[in-house]
Structures are given as C-alpha cells and as structure tokens.
Design brief:
The complex is a heterodimer. Chain A is an alpha/beta fold. Chain A is 40% helix and 22% strand. In chain A, strands 6-7-8-3-9-10 form a six-stranded mixed beta sheet, with helices on both faces. Chain A has a four-stranded antiparallel beta sheet with strand order 2-1-4-5, with helices on both faces. Chain A has a four-stranded mixed beta sheet with strand order 11-14-13-12. In chain A, strand 13 and strand 14 (326-330) form a beta hairpin. The two termini of chain A are 34 Å apart. The termini of chain B are far apart. The longest helix of chain B has 40 residues, at 10-49. By secondary structure, chain B is mostly helical. Chain B is globular and about 65 Å long. The chains are: A alpha/beta, B mainly alpha. The interface between A and B is medium-sized, with 33 and 22 residues. Chain B: The chain crosses the membrane at residues 20-43, 50-66, 72-89, 96-120, 140-166, 220-238, 250-270. Chain B: It comes from Thalassospira povalilytica. Chain B: This is ABC transporter permease. Chain B: GO terms for molecular function: amine transmembrane transporter activity; carnitine transmembrane transporter activity.
Chain lengths: 345, 288
C-alpha cells in the first residue's frame, strides 16, 4: 500500500450534492449533471497513490479540479464520497483536534499567491507553523532562522511580505512549510505566479532541496514543462477526471488520449526523454562485445545531452545501465523517432 | 381611506409591553443603570476635576502616540484650547465623559457582535435589518421607553447613543473579517491553527484597520448624538445648544455648535491616526 492513498474521490459543489453524486456514479458527465441538478462536479472518481519520498505532480488546466484535489489531502475540503489515507490512517474520520494535530505535525503547504501573513515579518511568518504547535519562541526562531538561511533569505528576517518580490515571498512560503519538518509538502501552483526566470530558479531550488530532504511532495501545476521537469510521476486531470498517470517519459511517449497529446506536442523532448526510453535494447543473449566504447552515454542521460555525442559519432551510441554494462544502442533512427511528435501514433 | 377594521393596534401593544417591563423588571433596570452611572460619574469627575492644562497635555500625548506628527499635535491642542476660550470647557468635559463611556460600550458590544456576524451568515441576515433599524429609527422613538425604564438623565442618554452609534463598528468588524484574504486563512488552517488561533492571530489583526475605521465612525456618531441626548437631561455641550434654541440665543447656540465640531475634529483625527497606524504595521519598521 502506498503512503498516500486516494480512493474513488467525488467532490460535488452545489445545493444537492447527493443527487448529483448518484448521477456521477451512474456515469453522467459534468455538463449533464450541471444541467439536471445545478451541481458542479469538482472531482469525478479520482483514485491515486503517492509513494513516500516521491515528487508527484498533478497537472491540469483551470477548472480541472487540481486545486480541489490537493485540498482533500489536508481536508481544507472534504469529499462528497471516497477515502483519503496517509500511511494507512484514514484522515476523513479524524475529529477537529486530531485533524489539526495531523496538519501541524505532518503536512506543510505552499500556496499560489503565497498566503503569507501580511502583518508578520519574515521571521514570524516562517515560525508560524511552530508557533501554532506551541513551540517556545527561542526554539522556533532557531528553526526558522535555519530555513530562512536555507532558502537564501538571510538578512531579510525583519522585512514584511509586501517589502519582498514575488520570488522572495514564495521562498518565505517554502521556508514556512519546511520549518515544521513535515513528512508531506503540498504545493498548490506554488511557482505559477512567478516570472519565468524566477520560476525556473525556484524549480531548481526545490529539486535541490528534495534531493537532500526526500519529502513526499504533491505538486499542482497547469504547466506541463514544469510537471515534466520536477515530477517523478505525473497525473493529468481534465474536468475532474483522471486521464493518465505515469513517469514524464511515459506521458510524452505514450499520451493516453488526444487531450494529453495536444499538451505534449509542444514539449521540449530533448529535456524530457532519456537514453533508456529511446534506445534500441540489446537482447541479453547477444553479449557485450562489438559496441562502440568511444561513444557511450548513461541510461539516464537526457536527449539534449545525447545529441552532441551523436553528432560526433558515425556509428550507433552505446547506452550503459546501472553497472556500466551496455544495455542498448541509439542510432540516428532512434534520435529522429524520439524528436518526431507522431512517431508513436 | 384604508379600512379601519384592518388597523393593527401595534402602538397599544408596545405600550403594554413597556408597562409590563417597567412593573416587573424596573429594579433590574435600575441596578444596571446605577452601575453604568457610577462609571460615568467617576470619569466625569476625573475629567472635570483635572486641571485644564493636564487635559491638553494628555490630548497632545495621545495624538503624538497615534500620529508622530507635531503639526497635528499642535492643531488638536489649539482646537481644545479654543473650546476653553469659548467658556465651554466644563461642559465639553461632561460631553467628553458621556462620549467616552458610550463609545467604549459600543465597542465592547459591537466588536463581538461583528465577529459573530462574520462567522455566521444566518446571524448576519438577521442582524443587517436590525442595524438598519437602529440607524434609521428616529432616536426620540427609543428615547421615550428608555426614559421610562431608566428615568431622566445620563443613563438613557448613553443607551440611546449606543443604539445610534454602535452599528458602524459592528458593520465594519464584520466586513473587515470577511475581507481577510481567503488564501491567508487557508494557509493558517493548513498549518493546523485552531479557530481561536485563526481569530486572534489572523482575522482580528488583519481586520484591525476596518475595525478602527468603525470605532472612528462610532465616536463621531456618538458626538453627534449629544445634542439629542441633552433633551432627556444629559448635561454638556448639547444642553447649551438646546438652551440656545429655547431662548432664541443664536450666539450661544453657535458657540456650543463650534465646540462640538472642534471636539469631533479632535477625536476624528486621533482615530484616523490610529487607523493608519494599524493599517501599515510594517511602515514603522521601514526606517530600520
């Protein structure tokens, strides 16, 4: 069983959710239910599992239900039907004090428009989660200082949120979420409000932090490039329904339907695809002789880094696995196939 | 002509109700009135007993604390000084005492009511027409039953003032809390803050500029009520205006009117300065 389990979640907004729920379970779609009952279906039978330590990205356009989905994980929103559990613990059956204790100890959340407390300075914002837990001032300020430093805001402790740029404010938001040392980090379009360059910086920063901290991260975005960059796995939502779940390369190479394919068309494949998924595998029986040793790439090399190697080589490039043994080859055909959008149709 | 058979004797019922209140609960109302009176009289004695220059220094100190602006301090001290030169110092102090007690009572009642309204849409739906009534009902209408319950004098004046002046602080407390950024509230909830922690740590601090604006309006309205309150025996500047009207003494009425305006200006500016201060808590640290 996975760490976070979401089972058959339905969320219906409106005056009579139960009537709409019957229709939704019977298979009616969003428009039909809205026309018949005046209720809006936010999530339609969504089931997901998130493993401990992975960065799980939920991607969808506005109205797809992605922000509603992430709010089910800390019960900022309660589902109309379905189950949510963390490590086997059913969070929907928790009473208010238990739920608050769960939120305090085990979850941190980062918001699209930062959600900083405008009347508190950076120090007091970052220390907020610990303050809610009842930690004494000295301890919480020590912890907050550490995280302020870690996200590169040392020296800004006494500044107020409105004195900081968007990128800096979101660093405060990230530090605040990490300061309580939660198991799970929920990030709701955390970088969407930032300028492209700052956004890219923050993505790198998050990936660097994650390489050290190994938190379980659930990250919401409407940007497929962002999803492909930081996600270990990606779930794609449309109109409250789950369309596809998979590793970034699976999404790009095997889009589940035309909707996903439309998204992946503009993706920079060079950054997403790796040697392992475009190579021609070697049959185990054929041994390890006769492969180029001059032009070798590791199995996890990105396509954009393979291209210069391929240009300098007349023969196929050798791909090596974990133990540096050849596991496949990449020739011109494989590269052209990988770069061409319709190669998998 | 509207058919007479359809007349509802509402007036008669209200009279019966008030009579019933007076007969059955007269002593309870008196006890309440007495405690309110004790506070008011003590404050009035303090203000009237204090030397005039001490009051001026106090006004200057409060203004400085609120605004850190010497020009404003000087202006407000001069305004108070002018009231003295009009020969109305003692009456102004009586009005001031009445106003402070009425405003404090309005805030003590109004802020919790406003908070409750912000928490419950149903209560809000009930309270909004009640507040409208409090603000539009001619004050004489409730002065009469207040007189019957509490007798002539200061206490019904305070209660009438509270009925008239409390709505702004109630409305703006409700509004201020409802205007708090929902994402900030979500953030607070996501960290496991309890309702109490959210109310005192997030909602009230962020609603403070609006609440201060409400308190300011409440203060202004309670000053404007002093003239009417004087008709049921409250002393002070209103009494002087009333006397001016009764004797057709335009000059005396004008003097008292000017004094009321000056008093209002002083408290408006102080209130606004505190409002601004609560709005920009961070600007105080800007200088660092």
């Amino acid at each position: 069983m996975s760490y976070i389990e979401i089972r058959n979640i339905f969320k219906i907004f409106g005056p009579d959710p139960n009537a709409a729920l019957e229709l939704a379970k019977a298979g009616s779609d969003k428009e039909e239910i809205l026309a018949k009952t005046g209720n809006t279906v936010g999530l339609h039978d969504v089931s997901l599992s998130v493993e401990q330590g992975e960065t799980f990205v939920v991607m969808g356009l506005s109205g797809s239900g992605k922000s509603t989905l992430i709010r089910h994980l800390n019960r900022l929103i309660d589902p109309t039907a379905g189950q949510v559990s963390f490590g086997g613990e059913d969070i929907l059956s928790m009473d208010i004090p238990t739920l608050n204790a769960f939120r305090r100890k085990r979850l941190g959340m980062v918001f699209q428009r930062f959600g900083l407390l405008p009347h508190r300075n950076v120090m007091d914002n970052v220390a907020y989660g610990l303050e809610i837990q009842g930690t004494d001032r000295k301890t919480r300020e020590a912890a907050a200082s550490k995280w302020i430093d870690r996200v590169g805001l040392a020296g800004y402790e006494a500044k107020f949120p409105d004195q900081l740029s968007g990128g800096m404010q979101q660093r405060v938001g990230l530090a605040r979420a990490l300061a309580t040392d939660p198991e799970v980090l929920l990030m709701d379009e955390a970088f969407s409000a930032l300028d492209p360059l700052i956004r890219s910086d923050m993505q790198d920063e998050l990936m660097k932090l994650q390489a050290e901290l190994h938190k379980t991260i659930v990250f919401i975005t409407h940007d497929l490039d962002e999803a492909l960059k930081i996600g270990d796995r990606i779930a794609i939502l449309k109109d409250g329904k789950l369309i596809q779940v998979g590793r970034p390369e699976e999404i790009v190479l095997n889009p589940a339907d035309a909707y996903v394919q439309a998204f992946t068309r503009d993706v920079n494949r060079g950054k997403v695809l790796r040697a392992r998924s475009i190579m021609e595998p070697i049959k185990p029986a054929s041994g390890t002789d006769g492969f180029s040793t001059a032009h070798v790439v590791r199995y996890d090399t990105r396509l954009e880094d393979i291209l210069p190697v391929a240009l300098g080589s007349d023969t196929a490039i050798t791909v090596t696995g974990h133990d540096n043994h050849p596991i496949g080859t990449i020739g011109k055909k494989q590269i052209l196939d990988a770069l061409s959008v319709h190669s998998n149709d | 002509m509207f058919p007479e058979q359809l007349n509802v004797p509402l007036g008669k019922w209200v009279n019966q109700f008030v009579d019933w209140l007076v007969i059955n609960y007269g002593t309870a109302f008196e006890a309440f009135a007495d405690s309110l009176l004790t506070i008011l009289v003590a404050l009035e004695q303090l203000l009237r007993g204090a030397p005039w220059w001490l009051i001026l220094i106090a006004i200057a100190a409060i203004t400085w604390h609120a605004s850190k602006n010497w020009k404003l301090v000087a202006g407000l001290v001069i305004a108070m000084f002018v009231i003295g030169t009009l020969g109305l110092w003692d009456k102004a102090m009586q009005t001031l005492a009445l106003m402070i007690v009425a405003t404090s009572l309005s805030v003590v009642i109004g802020v919790p009511v406003g908070i409750a309204m912000a928490m419950s849409n149903r209560l809000r739906a009930i309270m909004l027409p009640v507040l409208d009534t409090m603000q539009t009902m001619p004050s004489f209408v409730y002065l009469i039953p207040a007189l019957m319950l509490f007798g002539l004098g200061k206490v019904p004046a305070i209660l009438a003032t509270v009925i008239y002046a409390a709505p702004p602080v109630i409305r703006l407390t409700d509004l201020g809390i409802r205007l708090v950024d929902p994402e900030v509230l979500e953030a607070s909830r996501s960290f496991g803050a309890s309702r109490k922690q959210i109310l005192f740590g997030v909602q009230l601090p962020l609603a403070l500029p609006n609440i201060m604006a409400g308190i300011n309006q409440t203060t202004m309205m309670s000053i404007s009520m002093v003239v009417i309150a004087s008709m049921i025996g409250a002393r002070g500047l209103g009494e002087q205006v009333l006397m001016g009207i009764q004797r057709l003494d335009v000059g005396a009425g004008m003097e008292a009117g000017i004094a009321i305006v000056l008093l209002a200006v002083v408290f408006d500016r102080i209130g606004q300065a505190y409002g601004k201060r609560s709005q920009r808590t961070s600007s105080a640290e800007d200088g660092q």
